[in-house]
Specification:
This protein is an alpha+beta fold. It has eight helices and 17 strands. The protein has a four-stranded mixed β-sheet with strand order 15-14-13-16. Strand 7 and strand 8 form a beta hairpin. Helix 2 crosses helix 3. The chain is globular and about 75 Å long. The termini are far apart.
Length: 477
């Protein structure tokens, strides 16, 4: 009994002492006053290759009718929070790292597959003359396998040979990337609470404990023929796993876009070499559709998190910018119609500020025929390159004619990851910035157009953003 009383007294004394100190270790007010619980603050380091776009506001859109099409762009005053943004567009070299990671992952799995490697054994078959023929797998004999041959077999399995030219190349149909995303937004909605008692705050509403709530989620699988099937399923809400969406995306860019985008043009060299040749390493990747761009963002996040340890839980995910974020970043700190401070698209000496189509049929007037190396033109006041021209860029926002008028005025966006069975009209995604093939009107910061989410173009690329954690407060002076 004495031991118990002593322990209680000791614990009480310890709590009394602890109450005099804050979580940071400094003395606080005594006498039972509430002083709060603090943690260790974290100054988020600048992500590699990104710049910080500080929070602010802008009048999104333009009051001027487009001179080319006579089209009015919707306008609205909006505000956005701070975010990190790639200072340059994602390059061939960066995206190729993603493709090779997917390739190497397939090889690693096959090294443990009995069909390619692992601990299984060969059966040496003999022909009618007793000579050995091509070995096949057999689980009943214990002839050791050659590890070097297993490794070579696994590597060779992701390559194919052109049936006509004999060229050895990656079998792009195999390069599928599977990933899962937990939908925090959907899970937070009150109508999808697992506990029926939490779905209604109005106490006059009689809660039905047997109420069946339907939830939609994206899922995907690969059939025996290697074909990706993606669909949205609707089923009764049962667990937090109902908010996990599964995607399988073939990650290889559509290199044929150079042929299909420009009929009767000699672009074979771009189709064959633009993505694979090292001379184009620092050029923006093209032929990547919206779904592939999202897959890259997810892979880039996981690639980062694996090397961060405990701090990983505080890191925001890489993603595509919203349409509002993109325009806010492109306008620069001055809110310019074009990313640069000067009026017009060229200096007094005739030097152009971006890679676009300055004249009818004259693509080379600005110094380039197609895309250019990223970052060779001056950055805007946010430190961002090629926010006009070079390649147009995917955003995360669904394209509607109403644009920002149908969104919130704080961090506005509209999202919908359309499944294969959805009407094609629902697969329009907003594209911003204009490209190397577009005239001056299209490269203005407010200009908006669209492309379908499953289409890759020779003039559309992308860059990533990350929300900043804990933006600093300040008083307006």
């Amino acid at each position: 009994m004495k031991k118990i009383i002593f322990a209680i007294c000791t614990l009480t004394a310890a709590l009394a002492v602890a109450s005099c100190f804050s979580a940071k270790g400094g003395a606080t007010a005594a006498g039972g006053e509430v002083t709060g619980v603090s943690g260790t603050s974290m100054a988020e380091p600048a992500p590699f290759g990104m710049v910080l776009v500080k929070r602010g506001s802008l009048k999104m859109g333009s009051d001027k009718s487009d001179s080319l099409w006579g089209k009015d762009l919707p306008t609205r005053d909006i505000s956005v929070d701070a975010f990190w943004m790639d200072e340059k567009e994602v390059t061939n070299s960066m995206y190729r790292q993603f493709v090779y990671w997917v390739r190497d992952s397939i090889i690693r799995e096959r090294l443990a597959d009995p069909a390619y490697g692992g601990d299984e054994t060969y059966k040496i078959e003999e022909d009618r003359y007793g000579e050995p023929v091509t070995p096949h797998l057999n689980w009943n004999k214990a002839l050791p396998r050659n590890p070097d041959e297993d490794q070579l077999r696994a590597i060779e399995s992701v390559y194919t040979t052109h049936p006509v030219t004999g060229e050895k190349m990656l079998d792009v149909k195999q390069l599928n990337y599977r990933y899962e995303v937990f939908d925090y937004v959907m899970a937070a909605k009150r109508k999808y609470r697992l506990n029926p008692e939490e779905r209604y705050l109005n106490t006059d509403v009689q809660v039905d404990s047997e109420e069946q709530v339907m939830i939609s989620k994206d899922t995907a699988y690969v059939d025996d023929e290697g074909i990706i099937h993606r669909e949205t399923i609707t089923r009764p809400l049962s667990s937090p796993w109902d908010f996990v969406n599964t995607y399988i995306v073939n990650v290889y860019p559509d290199t044929t876009c150079w042929i299909n985008d420009f009929q009767n043009a000699e672009n074979e060299v771009y189709m064959r070499l633009y993505f694979t040749h090292s001379n184009f390493n620092d050029y923006p990747v093209v032929g990547v559709n919206w779904e592939q761009a999202n897959a890259f963002c997810n892979w880039r996040t996981d690639y980062l998190i694996k090397g961060l340890g405990a701090q990983a839980k505080f890191v925001q995910r890489y993603r595509l910018p919203t349409e509002a974020e993109w325009e806010f970043a492109a306008r620069g700190k001055e809110g310019n119609e074009l990313p640069w401070n000067q009026e017009g698209v060229a200096s007094d000496k005739g030097c152009y500020y971006a890679n676009f189509k300055p004249d009818r049929g004259n693509y080379t007037k600005d110094g380039n025929l197609i895309t250019s190396k990223t970052g060779i033109y001056s950055a805007n006041s946010n430190g961002l390159y090629d926010m006009a021209g070079n390649v147009a860029e995917w955003t995360s926002t669904v394209y509607t004619e109403a644009g920002v008028l149908s969104m919130s005025d704080m961090n506005p966006t509209l999202t919908y990851n359309a499944a294969k069975e959805d009407p094609y009209a629902l697969k329009k995604k907003s594209v911003r910035g204009g490209s190397w093939k577009d005239p001056e009107s299209f490269i203005k910061s407010a200009w908006r157009t669209y492309e379908y989410q499953n289409v890759g173009r020779s003039f559309i690329g992308f860059r990533c953003v990350r929300s900043q954690v804990g933006t600093a407060s300040r008083a307006k002076r």
